[in-house]
From TrEMBL:
<protein>
    <submittedName>
        <fullName>Sugar ABC transporter permease</fullName>
    </submittedName>
</protein>
<feature type="domain" description="ABC transmembrane type-1">
    <location>
        <begin position="96"/>
        <end position="308"/>
    </location>
</feature>
<feature type="transmembrane region" description="Helical">
    <location>
        <begin position="230"/>
        <end position="251"/>
    </location>
</feature>
<feature type="transmembrane region" description="Helical">
    <location>
        <begin position="102"/>
        <end position="121"/>
    </location>
</feature>
<keyword id="KW-0813">Transport</keyword>
<keyword id="KW-1003">Cell membrane</keyword>
<dbReference type="InterPro" id="IPR035906">
    <property type="entry name" value="MetI-like_sf"/>
</dbReference>
<dbReference type="Pfam" id="PF00528">
    <property type="entry name" value="BPD_transp_1"/>
</dbReference>
<keyword id="KW-0812">Transmembrane</keyword>
<feature type="transmembrane region" description="Helical">
    <location>
        <begin position="287"/>
        <end position="309"/>
    </location>
</feature>
<keyword id="KW-1133">Transmembrane helix</keyword>
<keyword id="KW-0472">Membrane</keyword>
<feature type="transmembrane region" description="Helical">
    <location>
        <begin position="133"/>
        <end position="153"/>
    </location>
</feature>
<feature type="transmembrane region" description="Helical">
    <location>
        <begin position="27"/>
        <end position="48"/>
    </location>
</feature>
<dbReference type="InterPro" id="IPR000515">
    <property type="entry name" value="MetI-like"/>
</dbReference>
<comment type="similarity">
    <text>Belongs to the binding-protein-dependent transport system permease family.</text>
</comment>
Length: 317
């Protein structure tokens, strides 16, 4: 009598699924390795180098090598009681305050206008395709070109916007919105709103197009007005896309450099954190002090992002 061979245990579906998932995870990690290596080379090393230089005194024109001074670039008081650290300098706090005002003003206006444009483009109107193309023109123009164009329009001699301001009584003869310290920052906000509102509209339009049309049909059957539909249906379902658009634009505005620098340079009334960092790094050749400013900008943006994502529960998936 022959003894039957023991049957080979069959893999359960759960075990097979776990093995397949583990294999996919390993393959995904292997595919990510080249990207992580490149990212560490092009982003990680410069960041670590900047953090190191922020603890040193280093003038690239006169010093042969960085000299370690600890936290001296951040906080240092002389024997005469003069504060020389970046956190003790009024110019730094002026740049922070300018950046905050610029960020709040521009992001708020861009969000409101971008939402309005997105709602118009998403509605069933004639010429919607042409309107969608036209609204992207300001965003497609390079920042250098648009900034210089607005600089000419703000010119106190031949600028059309300055001419309107004088005709309406907002400006005196020979004055422009950029030359007036009280209106210079608002003028830069207007340029950024014109330039970046299409970007916000595009992001919000993508969110609007994910909302099923059946919900609006059901709301119409229930007799809900367009205003009620917006507040009770559109805005709640658009909130995830709105929050992602807000965080992208806010981070962009916090590190703004090109447009304000092209239009106003290092003017105290419009200097931003990035312009101030460039001033110390490039103009004054103070790589140690300028690196400390750069680290502070990085920390401000990182803390803001962490608070933003956790408190508002922003999801990027």
């Amino acid at each position: 009598m022959t003894t039957p061979l023991p049957s080979r245990p069959t893999a359960t579906p759960a075990r097979t699924g776990r093995g397949l998932q583990a294999n996919r995870t390993r393959v995904a990690l292997l595919l990510l390795v080249p990207m992580l290596v490149v990212l560490a080379a092009v982003a990680g090393y410069p960041l670590l180098r900047t953090i190191y230089l922020s603890f040193t005194e280093y003038n690239i024109l006169t010093d042969p090598a960085p000299k370690w001074i600890g936290l001296g670039n951040y906080w240092f008081t002389t024997e005469d009681g003069v504060g020389l650290g970046v956190l003790q300098i009024p110019e730094w706090w002026q740049s922070v305050w300018n950046t905050v005002k610029f960020t709040v003003g521009s992001v708020l206006l861009e969000t409101v206008l971008g939402l309005a444009f997105a709602l118009i483009i998403n509605s069933k109107i004639r010429g919607r395709g042409l309107l969608r193309t036209a609204i992207l023109v300001p965003w497609a123009i390079p920042t250098v070109v648009s900034a210089q164009m607005w600089n000419w329009m703000y010119n106190d001699s031949f600028g059309i916007i300055s001419d309107w301001g004088r005709r309406l009584g907002f400006l005196e003869a020979g004055q422009s919105f950029l030359s007036n310290p009280d209106t210079a920052l608002a003028a830069l906000v207007a340029v950024d709103v014109w330039k970046t509102t299409p970007f916000m509209a595009l992001l919000l339009l993508a969110g609007l197009q994910t909302i099923p049309g059946d919900m609006y049909e059901a709301a119409d059957v229930d007799g809900a007005s367009p205003w009620t539909q917006f507040w009770r249906l559109t805005l709640p379902l658009l909130t995830p896309a709105l929050l992602v658009a807000l965080i992208f634009r806010t981070l962009d505005a916090l590190r703004v450099f090109d447009m304000p620098f092209i239009v106003k340079g290092n003017a105290p009334e419009t200097i931003t954190m990035s312009i101030y960092a460039r001033q110390e790094l490039i103009l004054n050749s103070q790589f140690g002090f300028g690196s400390a400013i750069s680290v502070l900008i990085f920390l401000i943006i990182m803390v803001f992002t962490a608070i933003y994502v956790t408190s508002l529960r922003v999801k990027f998936d």
